[in-house]
Amino acid sequence: MPSITIKDNSLFEINKSCTLIIKSDEVNIEYNLKDGEYNILIFNDADCNIVINDKGHINNSIVKLNYLELNNYDYIQNSNVEVDKSSQLFVVSTYLGVNSKKIIYDLVNAGKDTVIDITNNIICLDKADFSLDCIGTIKNGAKRSICHQKSHCLTLDNPKKARVLPVLNIDENDVEASHSLSSGTLDEDILFYMNSRGLDKKAALGLILRSYLMPNDNYYDGFIDGDTIKTLVEGKVNHLCSI
After folding, report:
1. In terms of pTM, does the model score above 0.90?
2. Which of 52, 85, 118, 128 suits 77 as a labelling partner, its CA being 20 to 30 A distant?
3. Among candidates 115, 93, 113, 121, which has minimal Cα distance to 105?
4. Does 231 or 171 have the greater pLDDT score?
5. Using an 8 Å Cβ cutoff, are 8 and 32 in contact?
């Protein structure tokens, strides 16, 4: 079972980006990030069921943490990150609901003037069994902290389950916190319009997936190996639209 540890300057230089392309069936990731700006992308490219356990501590830093999970296998993710001492954590996740996927985020405002902002983008396909628990905790003493959660879930065809549960545990008065969840199916008028322009269902699905996964041409340019990720994403979208 491989273990990946991200510490100061161990896998990437401070103020640079890091891309982790996962190939193994179980991976442990530990963050110890301080005194810098970090941009991290975790991309699952394993051809098997996978478990990702990641935890960490952020101190006096601005961290952008990105998860990209598009595989046609079972997937489990347990993420626990503690944000301390005026640090900011911005999480953006994109999940393609295929087979069974279980995700838990446990994000903690541990110190004063900390910021946590998480956005989850989810597309659930036919017979998907998907669940995401997004837990935000503001500890006592973490004054003037901010914790925001946003989740968007689009269901296509007929998923078995598409469950997203936002949770806020707040033990301090002088804070700002919110959560929002939008979910729904693809508008039939959109499909009709796309069909009327000569696109069949698979081609329409490909465009929709790309709009979620690659919202603009330079979306992945901020990451090391961004061109590699673009190629992998395109390959996965093409594969999904061919089955």
Report:
1. no
2. 85
3. 93
4. 171
5. yes
